[in-house]
Amino acid sequence: MAIGEVESLNRLVFLGTGTSQGVPVIGCPCEVCRSNDARDQRLRTSVMMESASTRLVVDTGPDFRMQMLREGVTKLDGVVYTHEHKDHLAGMDDVRPFNYMQKATLPLHASARVEQALRRDFHYAFEERRHGGVPNVEILPIEDHGTVQVGRLVLSAVPVIHGKLPIHGFVAGDLAYITDASALPASTLSQLQGVEVLILNALRPEPHYSHFNLDQALEVAAQVGAKQTWFTHISHLMGTHETRDATLPAGVGLAYDGLVLTREGVNWVTSMSAWRNSMRP
Predict the structure, then answer these.
(1) 62-96 residue pLDDT tens
(2) Which value, in Å, is the radius of gyration of the alpha carbons in the chain?
(3) Considering 64, 83, 146, 269, which has the largest number of Cβ atoms within 10 A of its Cβ?
(4) What structural domains does the chain harbor?
(5) Which residues contact 238 (CB under 8 A, 6 or more apart)?
(6) Across the chain, what does the average pLDDT equal?
(7) CA–CA distances in Å: residue 56 to residues 21, 101, 151, 180, 186
C-alpha cells in the first residue's frame, strides 16, 4: 500500500484492562473483587485501535467475544498479537463472525512464536482439508522494530521483555501500547521518546518476576515523559480503582474497561464507550 494511503490512529478503546485471571477473581472475597465500582470489573487485557477507515484489535484473549459484543463491533480489519500466552490468544476462534460478515480472510499479525502457538492451539483452522465453520485467517509475520500494516493503519513493533520471554509492544504515531513487560530494551525506550500517550502494564504494588509492578511502571512513565500515561493489565492486588488512582501523579491514571481515547486536533481526550455510558445512573 502506498504511503499516501496511510491514516493516523484517531481512536483507542480499552476492551479489557485486567490481568490473566481478570477482576473479580473467581472465589476471591477481597475488597476489589467485591467492589460495586464498575471500574474494578476488568476483562482480560486488549485494546481496539481505529483510524478513519481501519479497525484492529491487539490480542484476542478469552473475553474477546464479549468485548466485541459489548462494543457493537461489526467490522474488523485485523488482529495484532503481543505474545502467545492464553490470556492474549485464547479467543481467536471468535473471529469467525467477521469472516462471515466480511466474506474475507482475516489477517493475524504475529511473531514466529505466536504463529506456532496459533497453529498448535487452533490446528483445525490451518489444516489442508478444513471443515466448514472454522476461522478463515492468514498469519503475517512481525519482526522487532518492523512495520505492521493493517488496512491503512501502520504500527511499529517494539521488542519487550516479559520475564524471560521476548514479546512485542506497538507504537502508532504518538501513542505507544505496551503490556506484560518486565523490562524494556534501550532501543524500545529510545523509540518511545516523544510519544504523547503511553499505555503500560502495572500489575500490583508488590514486585513480580514477569510484570512491572507499580513503582517500576511509574519509573518507566517518568523516563518516557508522555503527556498521558495509562496503566493496564491490572490485578485485584492493586487495590480499588478509586483509592489507587487518587495516589498517582498528574498525567498518570489507571485505565478501565470502556475508557476511550480520541484524537482532537493535537490532543488526546478521554471519554467512555457507549456501553459504559449506559451503565451511568
Answers:
(1) 999 999 999 999 999 999 999 999 999 999 999 99
(2) 18
(3) 64
(4) 9-278 (3.60.15.10)
(5) 32, 202, 203, 204, 205, 214, 244, 254
(6) 96
(7) 24, 16, 9, 19, 28
CA distance 8 to 162: 28
CA-CA distances (angstroms) from residue 223 to 10, 50, 168? 25, 27, 19
> Minimal CA–CA distance to 199: which of 229, 155, 234?
229
pLDDT (0 to 100) of residue 1: 43
* Contact predicate 51/12, CB 8 Å: no
**256 burial class (0-12, 13-18, 19+ CB within 10 angstroms)?**
buried
pLDDT in tens, 197-225: 999 999 999 999 999 999 999 999 999 99
Q: pTM (2 decimals)?
A: 0.96
Supply 172's cell numbers: 502508532
Half-sphere exposure of 8 (CA within 13 A, CB side): 10
pLDDT at residue 58 tops 90: yes
CB 195 within 8 A of CB 179: no
CA distance linking residue 92 with residue 76, whole number of Å: 13
